[in-house]
Design a protein that fits this description.
This protein has 132 residues and is an all-alpha fold. It contains five helices and no strands. The protein has one domain. The chain is globular. This is Membrane protein.
Length: 132
């Protein structure tokens, strides 16, 4: 079920990410010339959407498994990372610094969650094979 969900999301996301990444300048023109300055931020946010997706797929699974403490821990980590990194990067890089903070935060969370999920899957698989 999870693999089907992830595949469907990837199937929709990849073309949109490519389109927004390369045509984002044109899209931002529709909102006004002042928005074009945020094109760098848009590119960072759209690239980080893959990490955000991994993180957002993990949360409902933890909800179903009745593990609210994991959700609280992850959301606290997310808030701490995002606030501290954005504060640091915005001072140095301006609004694009927020994009870097966003990407780093969700990169850490997404890769961490994916690593945990793979480790749990392999652990369950090894236990099942040793019983069978």
């Amino acid at each position: 079920m999870l693999i089907k969900s992830a595949s469907a999301i990837a199937l929709c996301m990849v073309p949109l990410v490519i389109m927004i990444y390369f045509m984002g300048n044109t899209l931002l023109c529709f909102f006004g010339k002042d928005y074009i300055e945020a094109y760098g931020l848009l590119k960072l946010l759209v690239l980080s959407s893959f990490f955000v997706t991994i993180y957002m797929l993990f949360l409902p699974i933890q909800n179903i498994k009745m593990k609210p403490q994991r959700i609280t821990l992850l959301n606290s980590l997310r808030a701490s990372l995002l606030l501290s990194l954005s504060y640091t990067f915005i001072k140095k890089l301006g609004i694009t610094g927020y994009g870097y903070a966003w990407m780093i935060t969700y990169g850490i969370l997404g890769l961490g969650v994916a690593g945990i999920a793979i480790a749990l899957y392999l652990t369950h698989r090894i236990k099942a094979e040793s019983k069978g």
